[in-house]
Amino acid sequence: MEKNTNELEKILGKTHLSEFDTYCSDNKESLNEYRNTFYVYIKQLLHEKGITQQTVFLKADIPERYGYKLLSGEKKTKKRDIILRVCYAAELSLEETQRALRKYGMAELYARNIRDALLMIVFNERPGDIIDVNAYLLKHGMEPLRTSGVQE
Fold it and tell me: Which long-range contacts (CB under 8 A, 24 or more apart) does 145-151 make?
């Protein structure tokens, strides 16, 4: 079972240098070096949910060709909104989305950030499609989830 950072730090506080290899093998699922990457994680979830990548790209309003490159790891993005679009279109829960963001190396949605707070509610309630999500954001004076635009 994956441990959070606080749990790992507690274990490290009691770990002797000679036990480092044991620490690594005992906590393999929790260490970045060994964890499934975003690409493996998202494909696994899509398979479990019975959703095709093509469906996700259509629902996320992301160009299909770019989407495939994104989910294969061939392309990277610095835009968290793109990953949020993919997660929402893939019907990920808030918890799954937070994990996907971590695996991609991006900041999780943060409850103290007003836009993130609204997005957290959106992921919990799932009020419709990406257009509906953007309508909620705009209604509250916030930036909509940006599309891919110019690729990075």
Answer: 145/81, 145/84, 145/85, 145/88, 146/79, 146/81, 146/82, 147/61, 147/62, 147/82, 147/85, 148/62, 148/63, 148/66, 148/77, 148/79, 148/82, 151/66, 151/75, 151/77
